[in-house]
Design brief:
Blueprint lengths: L3 H23 L13 H7 L2 H9 L17 E5 L5 E4 L3 E2 L7 E2 L7 E6 L6 E6 L5 E6 L9 E4 L4 E5 L1
Antiparallel strand pairs: 1-2, 1-9, 3-4, 4-8, 5-6, 6-7, 7-8
Length: about 160
């Protein structure tokens, strides 16, 4: 027998499922005027599937899967979408989160915007040149900035110094 409680519970779960699904599917790279632009089809051809999912669809790679997480050679980490230098290896640190982390980006390298997806409020970080999603910044990093730029390794490429 269907009761009012069953209907309300089922309806609430349906709405919750739709909200989660739309949050994951509706997210896209930062919008606006960027120096480097491509059609969606061009981005798909230029990027490997995992990098496309992160940079253009704001997905997140699984924690602990990036070879760049425990990588500490001297050099610069660039945007995998447009090759813009983003972070110096001098600002990289082991955050213990499973993602490459930095305490400061290079000047004029990234943009930020509020990200309220997945029932959270965070600050999303994107490449200022192509708008590609890189990760998020949190206020729990080391000195001198106290910030933790938690980046998806598939969104980055490394150039040795």
């Amino acid at each position: 027998m269907t009761t009012r409680r069953h209907l309300l519970t089922g309806g609430g779960l349906t709405v919750l499922g739709l909200a989660v699904g739309l949050g994951a599917c509706g997210a896209r790279a930062a919008s606006g005027a960027f120096e480097v632009t491509h059609t969606d089809a061009e981005w798909r051809k230029l990027l490997p599937p995992d990098a496309y999912a992160v940079l253009r669809q704001q997905r997140t790679e699984r924690a602990g899967t990036s070879p760049l997480d425990h990588f500490y050679k001297k050099g610069v980490y660039n945007c995998r979408g447009c090759d813009l230098p983003l972070f110096s290896s001098a600002t990289k640190f082991d955050s213990g989160t499973g993602w490459p982390s930095f305490w400061k980006p290079l000047p004029n390298a990234v943009g930020e915007r509020l990200d309220s997806s997945d029932f959270m409020q965070r600050t999303e970080v994107h490449c200022r040149r192509c708008g590609g999603h890189l990760g998020h910044v949190f206020p729990d990093g080391p000195k001198p900035t106290g910030l933790r730029y938690c980046m998806n390794g598939v969104a980055l490429s490394f150039k040795a110094a």
